[in-house]
C-alpha cells in the first residue's frame, strides 16, 4: 500500500470514528446515558457486526487488514488509554478515601475479593474455544476476575452527580470506595502484566514486579508529589509559550508510564499515578484542567472507545452457548460485586440501607472495564469472544445501576449531622476564598510591608494557598551577611510571612513554611508586570506610602498594579501601629454594607481571625430613615440580616463574631468612632475601585482612610 494511501485511509478512519462516535455520544447523553456508550456503539457499527455485514467491500477499503494502519490507529488508542487514566487519577481524592477508612477499606476489599474469585472460577468453566491459547491460562482467569471485580470511578461519579447525591455521606463513601477500587485495579493489572510477560508464574519475576511497584508508589506519593508540584509551578511561572502546563503534565504522564514499563508493569499504573500527582498540584486551576479535559474528550476518548467497539463482534452473541455465557458473566459480575460490597459495608459499620446503596452504586463498570479488556486483548490474554462478553457486561451493569441507585437512595435517611454539613457546604459554594490557589505579596521594608507580610502569612496558613513574595525594594530571597543584618533591622518580609504562616497553622518553628512561600525580586516595573502575568487570585500590598496624603491617589507602583490586576488587592495601611509578633490574636473590626466587596472582606477578615485565634466585630451603620421606618413598625431587616449572615459565616469558620450597629448618614464617621477607643488591632473592609483612565478610590473610602490611625487592610477590586 502506498504511503499516501496509508495516510489517506488513516485520516478516513479517524473521521469516521470521531464523527460517528461524537454523534452517537450526543444521542446517549440526551437520554441520560454516558457518552462513552455512544462511542462504543460507533465502533460496533463500524466493525464486523454491522458495517462489515452490510457493506463488506466498503469496510475492507476503510478498515483494511493492513499491519501499518492497525499500528497507527492502535497507537492513538493507546495514548487515549493513558490520557483517560491521567484524568481518572486527577479526579482521585485520597483524602476522601482516608476520611472513612474502615468502611471504605472493608467495602472495597470485600467488593473486589468476592467477584474476583467468582470471575477466576468462571474463567476455568468457559469452553476452550472462548479462552485464548495463552501460555498460562491463569493470566486469562486473572484478567476476567479483575474485570468483573472493579467499579469505574468515572461512571460512579457521573451517576452520583446525575441523581444529586454525590455530596451526601453515602455518596461520598461510594465515590471513595470506587477510587480505592480503581487504585487497586491498576496495581493488580500491573502484577498480572508481569505474569503475562514472563509467560509462567515466575515467583522471582512477580516479586521483582511487586517490589518495583511498591518502590515506585512510595517515591511518587512522597518525594514525587513535591517534585511534580514544583515542576508545574516553575513551568507556569517561567515559560511564555502557549499552554506550557499542559505540556508539563503530558511529559510527567509519559515519564511515569515509561517508568512503570521499565520496572515490568503496565504503563496504565504510571499514567494513573501521574494523574494523582498532577491533581494535587497547588496551581492546577480549573482553567488548566478544563483545557486538558477538552483536549482528551474532543479527540482521544472518542477514538479509544470507538476502537474498543471495533473489537466487539456481536455475531459472537448469536451463538446460544456464548450468549448463555455472556449472561453468566453479567450475573456473576453483578451478584458478586453486590454481595461482596454489601458484606463489606456491614463489616464497616454501615446500616443495612447504607450498605444496599453502597453495593448498588459500586455495581457499575464502564470505562475502567473497557480499558482493562482492551489491555487484555492486546496482550493476548483475552479472546475476541471473551472481550465482547466483558464489554457487554460493562454496558449492561452501567445502564441498570442509575435507576436502582436512585430508588435505594430515596430510602436512606438523612441524619442531623449530615444535614448540617450539607447546609454548610451549600453556603460555602457562594464564597470566594475556597476557590483561591495563589497569592502574591508585594512589599517593601516599611511597617506597612511587615504588616502586609504578617497578614498574608496568616491568610496563607488558613487557606493553604501558594504564596509568592515580590520584594518591592528589588532584593531577592537569598541574602548575604549584610542583607541579613538589614532584614533583621527592618526588612525580612519573607521570613515574617513564613513566621506568620507557621503561627497561623499551629506548626512547630522547625516546620518551615517554605512550601508555601517563594521570594522574588520585583523593584522594576517589568518584574511586577511579569509576576502578575503568572496568575494570582489575590495580591497583598505593603508599601511605605501607598496613598498620597493629600490627593489619596495611589502611589505609582500600586497604581500600576491595580490597573493591571483584575482580582482583589489587599492594601495594608497604618502598619506602624500594628502588633508585632505573628502569634498575637487579632481583634478585627469589619464594617458591613451588603455588597460583594464587603462580603469578600468578611471572608478575609474571618480567615485572618481564625488563623490568629482572634475575634471579629461586624459593624453596620444604618441610614437615619431606617430608624424612622422602624418607628412605623417596619424592622430594619436588611441591615440586621447582614449581621446575622456575618455571625453565620463566623460560626462556620470557628470565629466569634459580635454585631455592632450605629445610625449615621455618613458611615465613615461611625467607623472612625468605633476605632477611636483602640480596642481593635485591625480594620478590614472592602471597596470597589472607580474606573476612569486609571482605577481610583471613591470619595467616601478616601475620606475614611484619611482619618484612620488603626492598622487596616483595604480589599479593593
Write structural notes for this entry.
Mean pLDDT is 80; it is low at 476-491 and 507-515. The chain has a 10-stranded mixed beta sheet, with helices on both faces. The protein is built from 29 helices and 12 strands. Helix 15 (320-347) crosses helix 18 (384-409). With 717 residues, it is α/β, with parallel strands linked by helices. The chain starts with a helix and ends with a strand. It has 3 domains: 95-296 and 319-420, Na+/H+ antiporter like fold (Up-down Bundle); 435-582, HUPs (Rossmann fold, 3-Layer(aba) Sandwich), CATH 3.40.50.620; 585-710, Rossmann fold (3-Layer(aba) Sandwich). Helices cover 64% and strands 9% of the residues.
Give Rg in angstroms.
Answer: 31 Å
Provide the low-confidence segments as ranges.
Answer: 476-491, 507-515
Tally of DSSP β-strands: 12
Q: Give the proportion of residues in helices.
A: 55-70%
The CATH topology of the largest domain turns out to be Na+/H+ antiporter like fold
Summed up, the domain count is 3
User: Which architecture name of the largest domain does CATH use?
Assistant: Up-down Bundle
What percentage of amino acids are in beta strands? 5-15%
Largest sheet: 10 strands, mixed
- Structural class, by secondary structure, is alpha/beta
Strand order of the largest sheet: 3-2-1-4-5-12-9-6-7-8
End-to-end CA span: 64 Å
Amino acid at each position: 500500500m502506498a504511503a499516501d494511501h496509508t495516510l489517506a485511509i488513516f485520516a478516513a478512519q479517524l473521521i469516521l470514528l470521531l464523527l460517528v462516535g461524537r454523534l452517537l455520544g450526543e444521542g446517549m447523553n440526551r437520554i441520560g446515558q454516558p457518552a462513552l456508550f455512544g462511542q462504543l456503539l460507533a465502533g460496533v457499527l463500524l466493525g464486523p457486526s454491522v458495517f462489515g455485514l452490510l457493506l463488506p467491500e466498503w469496510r475492507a477499503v476503510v478498515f483494511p487488514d493492513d499491519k501499518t494502519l492497525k499500528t497507527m490507529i492502535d497507537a492513538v488508542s493507546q495514548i487515549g488509554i493513558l490520557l483517560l487514566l491521567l484524568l481518572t487519577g486527577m479526579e482521585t481524592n485520597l483524602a476522601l478515601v482516608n476520611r472513612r477508612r474502615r468502611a471504605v477499606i472493608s467495602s472495597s476489599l470485600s467488593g473486589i475479593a468476592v467477584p474476583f474469585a467468582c470471575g477466576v472460577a468462571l474463567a476455568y468453566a468457559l469452553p476452550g474455544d472462548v479462552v485464548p491459547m495463552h501460555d498460562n491460562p491463569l493470566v486469562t482467569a486473572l484478567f476476567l476476575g479483575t474485570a468483573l471485580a472493579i467499579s469505574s470511578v468515572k461512571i460512579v461519579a457521573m451517576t452520583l452527580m446525575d441523581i444529586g447525591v454525590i455530596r451526601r455521606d453515602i455518596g461520598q463513601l461510594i465515590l471513595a470506595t470506587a477510587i480505592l477500587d480503581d487504585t487497586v485495579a491498576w496495581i493488580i493489572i500491573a502484577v498480572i502484566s508481569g505474569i503475562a510477560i514472563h509467560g509462567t508464574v515466575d515467583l522471582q519475576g512477580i516479586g521483582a514486579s511487586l517490589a518495583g511497584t511498591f518502590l515506585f508508589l512510595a517515591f511518587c506519593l512522597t518525594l514525587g508529589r513535591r517534585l511534580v508540584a514544583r515542576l508545574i509551578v516553575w513551568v507556569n511561572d517561567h515559560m511564555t509559550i502557549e499552554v506550557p502546563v499542559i505540556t508539563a503534565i503530558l511529559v510527567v504522564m509519559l515519564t511515569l508510564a515509561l517508568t512503570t514499563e521499565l520496572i515490568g508493569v503496565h504503563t496504565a499504573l504510571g499514567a494513573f499515578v501521574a494523574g494523582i500527582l498532577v491533581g494535587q498540584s497547588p496551581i492546577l486551576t480549573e482553567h488548566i484542567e478544563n483545557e486538558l479535559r477538552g483536549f482528551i474528550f474532543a479527540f482521544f476518548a472518542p477514538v479509544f472507545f470507538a476502537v474498543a467497539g471495533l473489537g466487539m463482534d456481536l455475531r459472537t452473541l448469536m451463538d446460544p452457548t456464548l450468549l448463555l455465557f455472556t449472561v453468566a458473566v453479567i450475573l456473576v459480575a453483578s451478584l458478586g460485586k453486590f454481595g461482596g460490597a454489601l458484606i463489606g459495608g456491614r463489616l464497616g459499620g454501615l446500616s443495612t440501607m447504607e450498605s444496599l446503596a453502597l453495593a448498588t452504586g459500586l455495581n457499575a463498570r464502564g470505562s475502567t472495564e473497557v480499558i482493562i479488556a482492551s489491555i487484555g486483548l492486546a496482550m493476548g490474554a483475552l479472546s475476541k469472544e471473551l472481550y465482547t462478553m466483558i464489554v457487554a457486561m460493562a454496558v449492561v451493569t452501567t445502564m441498570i445501576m442509575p435507576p436502582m441507585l436512585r430508588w435505594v437512595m430515596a430510602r436512606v435517611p438523612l441524619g442531623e449531622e449530615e444535614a448540617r454539613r450539607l447546609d454548610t457546604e451549600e453556603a460555602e459554594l457562594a464564597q470566594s476564598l475556597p476557590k483561591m490557589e495563589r497569592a502574591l505579596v508585594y512589599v517593601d521594608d516599611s511597617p506597612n510591608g511587615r504588616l502586609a507580610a504578617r497578614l498574608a502569612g496568616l491568610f496563607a496558613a488558613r487557606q493553604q494557598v501558594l504564596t509568592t513574595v515580590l520584594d518591592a525594594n528589588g532584593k531577592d530571597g537569598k541574602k548575604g551577611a549584610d542583607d541579613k543584618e538589614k532584614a533583621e533591622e527592618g526588612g525580612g518580609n519573607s521570613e515574617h510571612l513564613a513566621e506568620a504562616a507557621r503561627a497561623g497553622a499551629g506548626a512547630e518553628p522547625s516546620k518551615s513554611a517554605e512550601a508555601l512561600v517563594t521570594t522574588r525580586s520585583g523593584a522594576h516595573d517589568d518584574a511586577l508586570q511579569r509576576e502578575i502575568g503568572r496568575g494570582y487570585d489575590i495580591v497583598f500590598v505593603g508599601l511605605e506610602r501607598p496613598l498620597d496624603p493629600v490627593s489619596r491617589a495611589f502611589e505609582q507602583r500600586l497604581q500600576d498594579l491595580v490597573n493591571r490586576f483584575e482580582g482583589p488587592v489587599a492594601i495594608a495601611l497604618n502598619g506602624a501601629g500594628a502588633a508585632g509578633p505573628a502569634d498575637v490574636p487579632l481583634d478585627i473590626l469589619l464594617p458591613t454594607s451588603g455588597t460583594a466587596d464587603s462580603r469578600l472582606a468578611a471572608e478575609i477578615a474571618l480567615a485572618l481571625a481564625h488563623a490568629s485565634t482572634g475575634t471579629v466585630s461586624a459593624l453596620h451603620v444604618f441610614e437615619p430613615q431606617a430608624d424612622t421606618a422602624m418607628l412605623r413598625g417596619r424592622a430594619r431587616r436588611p441591615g440586621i440580616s447582614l449581621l446575622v449572615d456575618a455571625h453565620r459565616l463566623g460560626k462556620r469558620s470557628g470565629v466569634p463574631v459580635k454585631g455592632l450597629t450605629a445610625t449615621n448618614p455618613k458611615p465613615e464617621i461611625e467607623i472612625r468612632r468605633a476605632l477611636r477607643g483602640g480596642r481593635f488591632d485591625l480594620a478590614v473592609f472592602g471597596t470597589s475601585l472607580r474606573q476612569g483612565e486609571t482605577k481610583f478610590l471613591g470619595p467616601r473610602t478616601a475620606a475614611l482612610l484619611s482619618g484612620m490611625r488603626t492598622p487596616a487592610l483595604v480589599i479593593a477590586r
